[in-house]
Fold each of these.
Amino acid sequence: MATLVVALGGNAILQRGERGTAEEQRKNVDITAQQIALLVKQGHRVVVTHGNGPQVGNIMIQNEAARDQVPPMPMDIAGAESQGMIGYMMQMYIRNRLREMGLDIPVATIITQTIVDSEDPAFSNPSKPVGPFYDRAWAEKRMKEAGETWIEDSGRGWRRVVPSPDPKFIVEGPSIKALVEAGHLVVASGGGGIPVIMSPDGKLSGIEAVIDKDLAAERLATYIGADTLLILTDVPGAAVNFGTPSQRWLGKVSLEELERYQAEGHFRKGSMGPKVEAIIRFLRNGGQTGVIASLDRAVDAASGRAGTVVTKT
Ligand code: ADP
Ligand code: MG
């Protein structure tokens, strides 16, 4: 039975233009759950991971708005909150959809920590905007009093930026692997995992940073020895000359061809870039197939009949 790590994009939980009400998120997660259940029905062993940007952003806004009544939580704890809330929705809707198809498979979420290197160059260059927009006075106060980094974001106000270091190791990897091998459907590494650093004596501590969910999905897929890394998003795949008249969606491509396009700069930093990088790393680290496809084509994509399908040769 082939093992599939499915990395869900933001559109699996929230569509463009939605505010993020519980009902909107439930509806989207249920549609996603149907796709996941279909993958299981097709005979795949599935591990699910997902983004958390809008959800953790909203938690941070709640924290700031209630600052005087309830102590705000740091980013690592907010990340854990988002994993729990999204994990719960995934667990329930995936279980319901599986049952509808006559599949009695246990579904569980693992709150996941991801180790990053404390020497990662990202720490000297915080670049990923998080949380709400504020005015200059607030930004200056936070920079002075809390030592945070803030940037002015194209006239829309000031926003905090945090480092986005490279994920190295999934702390809960052994637990995830054991559950997968026992036939459970696992939801893990949400939002790329909670970023932690490890001291020389092995002690973990949470940090104020974010991890790219696609790069963390590669770490997870490689660790559990998955056959396929399937990255589902809101476009049909990876394109060369994206957004220009000569745009061309990539279908079946070899690893070398994809690396050539990457070197030519076809995939944007922060969106398609990390997906392509994740697929390249997965194949370099022993994976068989990497696919980037749109969420509604999940089943075809898993068997290489939709999306950008990357293999070693
Ligand atoms: P997700 O939440 O799924 O990670 P992202 O917004 O991070 O979604 O990445 C998907 C987006 O990447 C697409 O909506 C598209 O606008 C953008 N993109 C940038 N470069 C490319 C490219 N070369 N081919 C396809 N999509 C691209
Ligand atoms: Mg993304």
Amino acid sequence: MAKASQLKSKCMKCEEKCGKGKASPEVLNQLEAGFAKLSNSDSVSMLKRFLTREVLDKCKQKKTSFGSTLLDCIQSGLENLDSGIGVYAADPECYEVFNELFDPIIEEYHNFKKTDKQPTTDWGNVGLLGNLDPKGEFVLSTRVRCCRTIKGYPFNPCMTEENYKDIESQGQNVLNSLSGELSGTYIPLKGMSKDVQQTLINDHYLFKEGDRFLQAANAFRYWPAGRGIFFNKNKTFLVWLCEEDHLRIMTMQPGGNVGDVYNRLVTAVNEIQKKITFVTDRRLGYLTFCPTNLGTTIRASVHIKLPTLSKNMDQFKILADKYHLQIRGGAGEHSDSADGIYDLSNKRRLGLTEFQCIKQMYDGITELIKTEKAAKR
Ligand code: ARG
């Protein structure tokens, strides 16, 4: 395991542990202008709440050894005042170099204090999970994903075209070596026909293009270089390369068999990890571009129809909160529900084990289905 601090060199100019050099006058000007705009706005983002004058002054001069500044981390939130969070780590070191900003965000979002530590990976007893909905009345499909960062590379805002191509070729090599149920095909986004791309998006296999939060975070440079999708024959195991994270590894299938989907993910991740070294931090677990994904990086979700419960959205949200579930629309993040189909997933992923994440989703959905059945009567 590599600690973020091991990746960092001491700054020669300011004798602080802040990487090489200092932010340029241009960056400082932009930070001040952005801060003024944010302060005068009615934004309720975490960036607005936690970027105080004091935090700005502590962070504004600093640079990581990859050359990232505070501006690289907050530009998405400065542009998108309606962000929930508004902050991305420009490279893995940012979590430590700009900890005055990241720590309170992580603490509030994940309920994870500065002194807390991510437990070591524990996939748990995979055999304990079964089918949430054996009769197929409620759950349309199940999906579990995790994110991984390849050691030695920054995140999107600092990645060169070369970095994108390297990660793609490393990823592709490993994925092409997988066998059995996991063997499949890699399709680069470059050269993919618009028809194929749109069909993959509509069927919930491929990432959408043009997310304005990622756009403003500078995550779309050199697009579509390095980006692509790998999937097995049945499209029950998929990997995205160089979208929001270096790798997004996921398994999915129709119906509610969480056991099968989780089992396949654990096998796939273990196989991939035999061949690529990913960045972990002793405190924060697996490091990701967005602070919401730290820790296990696990997002386990179902597409589900709960017609009675979702009639009253306020009640539905209270119930979801009770079981630590996040509600999204059926077409992914920032989408509304079409036909009463919701995407429900575990909200917590830092400070608990992989198994605990999946178990929270499993237990929560079990309870929601029980409540739906009782309410229908
Ligand atoms: N940056 C956006 C916001 O703060 C999205 C955050 C979570 N989503 C994500 N895909 N990482 O609202």
